[in-house]
Amino acid sequence: MVVSFGTAVLGVPLALGEVCAVQQPVAQALEAPVQDARASVQTQDANGDETTGWEQGRRGWLWVAVPQGVRVFCMRASRGAKGLREVLGEA
Prior knowledge:
By secondary structure, the chain is of the alpha+beta class. It has one domain. The chain contains three helices and three strands, in the order ααβββα. The chain has a three-stranded antiparallel β-sheet with strand order 1-2-3. The chain is globular, with a radius of gyration of 16 Å. The mean pLDDT is 83.
């Protein structure tokens, strides 16, 4: 899917091996900004919070928080409260 997206949408041809090679470095580079975004969401008073189900071979859930200026989401196999806490924090 990433290879197709890179070619069709970005106009950047990618090989599957390239995607695998950059997956960990990209995840590590995004770790701090993602934590900053989560902290921002968790300190704001008003959020537009949503959970949406989807099915692509198996059922899953997308948890989203949409306060002013930042968007945070996580995808989980369960609709349980763990996903909600992951997005909004414990409070």
